[in-house]
């Protein structure tokens, strides 16, 4: 049999190896230089009331979590809600129990290309707890909060409690310098934190009023309520600035350590050319060895 019969497969093998190596080099280079960028809108949220309370009934033989939120909204999808009451079932003889009632209770979250904003407005509000059907836990005239995040500007957070504040039937004056403690013998105690505000370079959050509650009317163990409550909370996160240059895009699959190719006259493509040449040499040597064995 003619030896050329065996040389043809060897040549073909070398040709295939050449094409594969040359194709692999540019492909690897393209992969190393590919950058992935994502765009995103800002975010905003607002809620009139959020509770995290534990209600114990009948000498703590029955525990009911009082987890209620009123008019909670979130954006990118802009939204607003204006329900005036929040109710809870199962803690008042099976009848709906009104936790919060107000003349105005609105929460709004909006997002655009350059602005994200959450805001809350609460007016003439009365908050009740199980075991205290006639005595309000808190009565408030006006409560507001607002968080504004605008591209290219420092986020801003504001919160206010305006007018009279009554806690467990007692008129109180809130202080921005620290919490206010209200204790009523035979009823319980409430700690109030006024106007919490936090901002970072791209976020803002504001809560008009936060309460820590421990109530057990006359120590009858009919309704023992403990936990926290937040009124008028707004948050936002800055949308990306469409005019700002993108600086945080990194190549995918880049080498962990750069090689100083300029010193030898190389370029960023050199490693792939060298890799292709080595592949060609290996493929050619393999083809020659195969041909010799078959001879």
Tell me about this structure.
It is a single chain. The protein is α+β, with helices and mostly antiparallel strands. It is 19% helix and 45% strand. Strands 1, 2, 3, 4, 12, 13, 14 and 15 form an 8-stranded antiparallel sheet that branches. Strands 5, 6, 7, 8, 9, 10 and 11 form a 7-stranded antiparallel sheet that branches. Helix 1 (4-33) runs antiparallel to helix 2 (270-294). The longest helix is centred in the N-terminal third of the chain and has 30 residues, at 4-33. It starts with a helix and ends with a helix.
Task: Give a brief description.
The protein is α+β, with helices and mostly antiparallel strands.
Number of DSSP strands?
15
Name the helix and strand elements from N-terminus to C-terminus, one letter apiece.
HEEEEEEEEEEEEEEEH
Low-confidence stretches: 1-39, 248-292
Beta content comes to over 45%
Structure classification:
alpha+beta
Features:
295 residues; alpha+beta; eight-stranded antiparallel sheet; seven-stranded antiparallel sheet; 15 strands; 45% strand; elongated
Topology (elements, then pairings):
Elements: H1 4-33, E1 43-57, E2 62-66, E3 69-70, E4 73-75, E5 79-81, E6 85-88, E7 97-111, E8 115-127, E9 138-150, E10 156-167, E11 170-172, E12 180-184, E13 188-199, E14 203-215, E15 223-237, H2 270-294
Antiparallel strand pairs: 1-2, 1-3, 1-4, 1-15, 5-7, 6-7, 7-8, 8-9, 9-10, 10-11, 12-13, 13-14, 14-15
Helix pairs in contact: 1-2
